[in-house]
Design goal:
2Fe-2S_ferredoxin-like_sf, 2Fe2S_fd_BS, two-stranded antiparallel sheet, 1 helix, Ubiquitin-like (UB roll), 83 residues, iron, globular, mainly beta, 2Fe-2S
């Protein structure tokens, strides 16, 4: 089970939820999002460390070093930062 750490907010376990965003939302994190489908980019965060796998191809293209929490799952422990 991978651990997700959000800088300044804490950490939680990823326990086979659909996406990283779903895991964070279920654990009470205050994460930005809107569409949950990779269309808007509202859930973009900076990936500080760790590896993720894309589970859906987003329409929105995140910036360098950024990921969309609605479109990925963690493969290893990850550290992210809300931008």
């Amino acid at each position: 089970m991978a651990k997700i750490e959000v800088i300044g907010q804490g950490e939680c376990e990823f326990d086979d939820q659909f996406s990283m965003l779903e895991a964070l939302d279920e654990n009470g994190f205050d994460m930005p999002y809107s569409c949950r489908g990779g269309n808007c980019g509202a859930c973009a965060v900076r990936l500080i460390s760790g590896e993720v796998e894309e589970i859906q191809t987003p329409i929105y293209e995140p910036g360098e070093g950024e990921i969309l929490t609605c479109s990925v799952i963690p493969l290893t422990d990850v550290v992210i930062e809300v931008i």
